[in-house]
Amino acid sequence: MTGVAAILLLCAAVLWLAAASFAFLARTRAGLAACAATSALGGTAAVAGGGIVALHGTEASRTIGAGNVVGAVTLQLSPLAAAFIVLLGLIALAIGLFAPRYHRPGSGSAFYFCVYNVALLASLGVLVAGNVVVFLVAWESMTVFSYLLIMRHHQWRGVMAGGFLFLALGEAGFALIVAAFAILSVKTGTLDLAAMAARSHAVPGAWRSTVFVLALIGFGFKAGLVPLHIWLPEAHPVAPADGSGFLSGLVIKLGVYGIMLFAFQLLAGGPMWWGVLATVIGAVTAVVGVLYAVIEEDFKRLLAFHSVENIGIIVTATGAAMMFRAGHQPALGAYMLLAAIYHTVNHGTYKTLLFLEAGVVEHATGTRDLDRLGGLARLMPRTSVVTLIGTLGIAGLPPLNGFVSEWLIFQGLFQGFRIQPLAGVVLVLAGAALALSGGLAVMAFAHAYGIGFLGIPRSRAAAQARETGQPLAGAAVLAGACVALSLGAPAVLIALGQVARAVTGVQLRPVLLPGKLTIIPAHLNFAAFSPTYLAVFLVGVSAVPLLIYLVGRGARTRTVPVWDGGMLRFRPRMQYTGAAFANPIKVTFGRLYQPEFHVERASDDPAGRSGPVRYDFHVLPLFQRYLYDPVVAAVRSLARFVRPLQSGDVNLYLLYIFLVVVIAYLFYLIQSY
Amino acid sequence: MTLTLAILTWALPLASAIVPWVGTRARGTGIAVAAGGAGSLAAAITLAARIVSGHPLKLLGGLVYVDSLSAFFVVTVALVVTLAGWGSYSYLRAEEERGELSPLQVRLYGTFFAAFAALMLAALQTGNLGLLWVLVEASTLASAVLVALEARATSLEAAWKYIIISSFGVTIALVGTLFVYYSATSLHLSPDQRLTWPALFAHASVLQAPSLRLAFLLVLIGYGTKVGLAPMHTWLPDAHSEAPSPASAMLSAALLNTGMYAIIRIQALTTPELGRYANDVLLIFGFASVLIGALFMIGCENFKRLFAYSSIEHMGLIAVGLGFGGVIGIYGALLLTLNHAIGKSVLFLTSGEVVLRYRTRDASEVRGLLQVAPLTGLVLLLGTLAILGSPPFGVFLSEFTIVRASFAGQASWLGFVLLPLLVVAFVAFARTTLGMVFGSRQGRAAGLASGSPLVGAVPLVAGLGLLLVLGVWIPGGLNELILHSMRSIT
Amino acid sequence: MTAIALQVIQSLTVLFLAPVYAGFLARAEAIVQSKRGPSVLQPYRDLAKLLRKESAISEHATWIFRAAPFVAFSCYLTVSVIVPIITDEPLPLAFLGDLIGGAFVLMLASFSITLAALDTASPAGGLGASRTTWVGSLAEPSLILVFFTVAALSNSDNPYLENHAVAGSLSAYTLPTHLLGLAAFFMIVLAENGRIPIESPGVSTEISMIEESRVLEYSGREYALVKWGSWMKLFLLSSIFMNVFVLPWGLGHANSILGGLQGIAALVGKLAVCGVLIVIIDSSFAKLRFFRIAEYLGASFLLALIGIITGYVIRS
Question: What angle separates helix B374-387 from helix B394-408, to the nearest 10 degrees?
């Protein structure tokens, strides 16, 4: 079976390589479609291959050629990576269907497709790497080609800055990842990942903890953990929509994959404080991410910040899994890992979906500003339905997939009382943080969908939106996946249970799916729910209100203008704006935002007759101001400090050499005695 | 046969020195230089294959000595000469067409380029430390002419500083060489033999420790001036940025390596007697160079100076790799030598294209290169990423190997010092060059490209392709060569 | 068979007793204010009237506006099958969800009404949507912490098991974990249903409306469904409060219809108690200023947190 999977993944790789090599064909419409189709086909192969490995639950690895001092080309199929490969393939498929209608044929698109497919290939490389060198080469290639992806429209405002921030912080994270791998490989004496995992328990505890912290921070840069996330809201919005979808849907998940790889496979369990650290960072990330998301007016930036929140949720779940393992609750540990992976896959589907739709909206209206949108539900009905599915998913509402994975995570956290009390309290607080972030996420997406799609268009640009010619297939595939991941949750859990078993050695099946398509959280008698039947019941029981509705046979329905308080004419600007919608949050959490705002009235007449009012609201860039700017300033001042050394005066230069000789000679004299 | 090959490696470039004086113009000179380089490379590769599978070549009592290490460096330098030679063709044609270079300047270029190449290649193939010194000093003088070629005030000043500082440094190296000679007095060898590396190496464990220590220090400082190790690097940014771009490539990628070759030879002599002494000294100078290189790259507006500082940083890294030692450290250092040579050549040749087009070395005046000259922009982009140690290019593999070596030794904390410096260098360098590549076109971009865009593109694409290949696969032959080289000095 | 019958009876109980509960509250409040007040059965008459009335729908509204009342109503009916209303053992469909599943389903109901409010383009709708989601998001952490107390007490997240845990032993009932969780949950019930001190029920001034504002545009049959749904929500949350936390006794068994009917009778009594409690608070306190609601919910959060910490400490 693994042979079939390997062949499928090889097909995926070849197809993506082909798509990249023939990307120059994308200068014509037909070529673009062909290129995208190849990419989509590769995605399908990846989904199949990854699915087989996940279901099969066994590892396999193979070395190509002989190694040398630098390393060897070893590839491995691991169930943990397989779950991510399925996500990668799904996203590639969706984007492949989306791209032909979204991009315009030309050399810019050709370049874009080339780097995009190489980025896909590099991502696959990260997930099948069996050797440290292969992993690192694939990882940074993925970063570099994602950077090139972001730079598609490099002439536009903010793209160069956003891309550079992505690259610079990606590099910082990469340095830490290199350190983690280098130390671990040196201490275990091998570059092969499987061998490292087998030997790592012999490494002294202090080094193991160092490696873990390095990996957490290094991969945290890529995943977008707070405070390492500042590149995310700058870089994701400026990429083309499908690129943003790829970045938010997959690339940041690879950061999560790295953390899981180290925590569960390479280091194979550690002391409780590792899990506590990860949980705390995850919880803080979730809350900070959503707090910045909910006040955003730029749709794509809102989505980007919200990705930060979801990464926080995933890392919290991962941290809880580590805590449970350290607290001698292996079943719960495996369960939380499963929940984390499930949420990863879910988030990948609906976030990519939302980014694709944001791209459609931007394409149709020319703007991403929610305060200029509105009324799209009427003008672009199919797009808005698909977006609604994504919104329900991301808000974690039944009956979609976000709800299922959040349920799983909360149930795991509720069982924190099974481990020592101090650690249990950490889980309690993490649960509270996740609850807050969940509630705010609902608010954020009521904001985004309600202001952006509902009501009436707030600007001429929005009023010009049309449905025809907009890409739909790709997003529809993802919407279908959202529904399938929810209704088919038991099947997904079987597959992920295999993955968890391969990683942790715990067989979850009996404490996960006792039957009747019901899910239980790793302990009988704790709780139960059935997403499939719940969805069926929700839909079915709507017959009751329908019946009640039909009781009033005689009542008619009349369309009337909206109540506007007696004004002469209802204008779009009278609707609630996004800024107003988020205002309660701005006030409540003002300490965090420390906003600067500016109100200018055209005249001093009372409100309503004062003429135009201008309201500017700027949030304090907290992490930039207090963390990054000082570091950059320190490095810059150090550089300025040494600059006079290169004065241009030859005599000074000769003096340096002379001094060095003198010092060296003194050094030699001291050594001789 | 091996001797013939060895002689060909430097004779072919030397022969091309005659061509400019036989009445041809830029075109002919360029072709001659390129051909000389190509021939030299072919000979070098064949020579390396023979040396690896056979014995070191030793003649005239060690005056001619070619072992695997020499062969490795010969191949590297010959590769650089080839790339730079190709680049010279488009440079000379473009400058001549514009009237920037007079026929005399073209001839001088051709001659001294060839002489420079030949002297370096010959220096790598001698076992006599005195002759090595002579050839290195001669190459300094030959390259100085190249630095001053364009006869601007700044280039003349740069050449002058180059000669003074280099000569000062090389003189110190001479004193160091004398101390090496002195440390062998207790051995019963003839005076000539006492200056010959194979003989010294054979008796390395009985050399006098005190003079050997001093010798290594002085040699490191002296040849380190040529290599560009801090704080003896001060001539490097001026010289490399003022020289014509193909010559900058030669300076950065070949001459620095030749200096490093000399240091490696002497270090090999010290290891049996002094243990890790040389390693520690190399680490100090290496880290200083990486630090200086990284710091000076911040806010550097002149992109050729930026590349020069990058060379300082990479030479520092090579020294650090040698300093950490061990199989991993030395392998990484040697691999980095090769990868850096290719990458830096590509970058300097690209910079040449940019200078030809924009007539400035100021990065802030160059924008939107991808739009104006797509191929040049793309090469600059990929070359930047390559030289900064980004996969999938070869420099990453070598840098990673060196990082591994840093954590393998006693002082693992040095690895934590090295990595932030590399990140700082990456961010500083990339900021400038990426600003040049992206964005909308601006600045006085000359409409016409350099004389022959396609020919000019060949070395760039070839170099990048080679780096890409080396980034994912180290050919068996190369692996053998490096392992053999390591064996020949341990 | 009995179980299925009880299941249906449970849902019908929620469906048909919710209006009278709302009527009882209105009547009790009037009496406390020395007025006569409307009949307890008035809500039924209101529903009957609304079902015959014409709906005036904003010209900007889409299918979301028309579908939301059905979605919300279905959600409330779904919650009615999974929480203990009349029996103390889970009924056949209880496997559909547990406490937190129920909480999420209630969130779906609220979300659909929120979207409907924004759908009409009415500024009042936007106002209500913004404020309601704000209150909801701040109430979430408290609610989850209450569930943590449940988990700590009964080793489960199942409302029935929690019921058994506190009904069975007096010591469990008097644990600070339980009592603090009880208080916190009550505060959330008030917040989620728009009672004093969060919102004045039935008042339609722009400055003070939170949940009311969302449904201003509804009329006719849709409005009937919306109102009925909100009564059901209050009924459900009050029932959970009484049956799981305060008075977990008196529920029927799952194997006898008679026990189920007895459970209904007990429920009526308990809800009377709960109603009186709500009315007392309504009449004694003033509505909080809008941004002070955050402090109120913070207090509820702290109560629950202290409850859990004591619970964890006691366990160890």
Answer: 10
ipTM above 0.85, yes or no: yes
C-alpha A229, offset from chain centre: 11
State yes or no: pLDDT of A565 exceeds 80: no
A182 to B406: CB separation less than 8 angstroms, yes or no: yes
If we measure between CA atoms, which residue out of A353, A337, A302 comes closest to residue A482?
A353
pLDDT score at A308? 95
Has residue A668 been placed in a domain?
yes
Q: Pairing between strand A557-560 and C55-58?
A: parallel
Indicate whether A402 belongs to any domain.
no
> Which residue type occupies B254?
A
Tally of domains in chain A: 2
Q: Do A592 and A628 fall within a single domain?
A: no
Tally of domains in chain C = 1
Q: How many CA atoms lie within 13 A of B238 on its CB side?
A: 26
Q: How far is CA A284 from CA A170, A229, B70, in A?
A: 21, 12, 57
Q: How confident is the model at residue A608 (pLDDT cuts 50, 70, 90)?
A: low
pLDDT at A569 over 60: yes
The domain locations on chain B are 2-488
Q: Which chains lie within 8 Å of chain C at 3 or more CB pairs, if any? A: A
- Cα-Cα-Cα-Cα torsion A419, A421, A422, A424, nearest 10 degrees, comes to 60
Residues of A in contact with B210 (CB under 8 A): 672
A572 belongs to a structural domain: no
Lowest mean pLDDT among A104-118, A174-188, C104-118: A104-118
Q: Note whether A365 and A461 are within 8 A (CB).
A: yes
N residues, chain B = 490
The neighbours of chain B, by the rule of 3 or more Cβ pairs under 8 Å, are A
A661 and chain B in contact, CB less than 8 A: yes
Whole-number Å distance between alpha carbons of A390 and A441: 13
Judged by DSSP in three states, A560 sits in strand
Mean pLDDT of A316-326: 94
Range of the domain at C100: 2-315
SS3 A362: helix
What pLDDT is recorded for position B182?
87
Per-residue b/e over B387-404, b at no fewer than 16 CB within 10 Å? bbbbbbbbbbbbbbbbbb
A145-199 pLDDT, tens digit each: 999 999 988 888 889 999 999 999 999 999 999 999 999 998 998 888 888 888 8
- Top pLDDT among A316 and B101 is at A316
C145–A425 CB contact, under 8 Å: no
Bridge partners of B128? B196
* 8 Å CB contact of A179 and B415: yes
Token pair in block for residue A333: 């540990």
pLDDT tens, A395-433?
A: 999 889 999 999 999 999 988 888 888 888 899 999 999
Which residue in B has a C-alpha nearest to residue A151's C-alpha?
A: B438
DSSP per-residue codes, B59-97 = EGGGTEEE-HHHHHHHHHHHHHHHHHHHHHHHHHHHHHH
The candidate with the shortest Cα–Cα distance to B319, out of B466, B212, B200, B221, is B221
CB contact under 8 A, B419 and A175: yes
Report CA torsion sign: A628, A631, A637, A642: negative
Residue B248 is predicted with a pLDDT of: 92
**Which pLDDT score, from 0 to 100, does residue A394 have?**
93
The backbone region for A606, taken as left when phi is positive above 0, alpha when psi lies in -120 to 50, beta otherwise, is beta
Our CA-based measurement puts residue B262 at a distance from the nearest CA of chain A, in whole angstroms, of 18
Interface size A-C, in CB pairs within 8 Å, comes to: 289
Which amino acid, residue C79?
V
Cis-peptide, bond into residue B13, ω within 30° of zero: no
The one-letter amino acid at C266: A
* Six token digits for residue C169: 């032993």
Range of the domain at A664: 622-672
